[in-house]
Amino acid sequence: VLKHAGNLTPTTTAILNSLKGNDIACPDWSIPARLMLPVNRKDLRVVPAREFNWFDSRSIIDFLSKPYTLSLRSNRMGYHLDGAPIHRVVKYELLSTAVTPGTIQVTGDGSMVLLMADCQTTGGYPRIAQVAAVDMPLCGQLKPGNTINFTDITHHEAEMLYIEREQQLHKLTAAVKSRFF
């Protein structure tokens, strides 16, 4: 309700007068749930990265089956993940390699960092996986203390999921335009 000097504005008064005796109706239109982005899913789909085989089999099993919690040390550059440590079998060090938002790196002490929007373009830690592009909006909604799980998928599956999401977004855009424009 808009007020000016303690009184209702003319616009507010006109709106309230037009509603006298009338119930405020709920819209008779809504966006189908199947077109909406999932907001509560905490299972992130990942594609194994180039250095995936640098880690022991127990660590790979833990990575894909145990939950990880976003640390309070997380920021826009990367989410530090608390959980089962990841152990390397290959001891090579990377000088520098390409990274993007969604890259999951394993630090020297076995902890993981999920790179986010403000990450650098190169990094020296081995990469265990890459979050599928279709799940990056879910990552953006996470906050410290949230628990996540990882599920491995193939490059092809990641691509098909992305195409499907783009088609859903086009349908959503069309649904909104048909109602409001």
Describe it.
The protein has 181 residues and is α+β, with helices and mostly antiparallel strands. It has a single domain, classed as Cyclophilin-like (Cyclophilin). 28% of the residues lie in helices and 23% in strands. A seven-stranded mixed barrel has the order 3-10-7-8-5-4-11. A hairpin with a 5-residue loop joins strand 7 and strand 8 (112-115). It is elongated and about 75 Å long. The mean pLDDT is 87.
Describe the strand arrangement of the main beta sheet, using strand numbers: 3-10-7-8-5-4-11
Shape: elongated
Low-pLDDT runs? none
Number of strands: 11
Which features does this protein show?
181 residues; 4 helices; alpha+beta; Cyclophilin; two-stranded antiparallel sheet; single chain; seven-stranded mixed β-barrel
Please write out the topology.
Blueprint: E1 3-4, E2 7-8, H1 10-19, E3 43-48, H2 57-65, E4 68-70, E5 78-82, E6 97-98, E7 103-106, E8 112-115, E9 122-123, E10 127-131, H3 136-140, E11 147-152, H4 155-180
Parallel strand pairs: 3-11
Antiparallel strand pairs: 1-2, 3-10, 4-5, 4-11, 5-8, 6-9, 7-8, 7-10
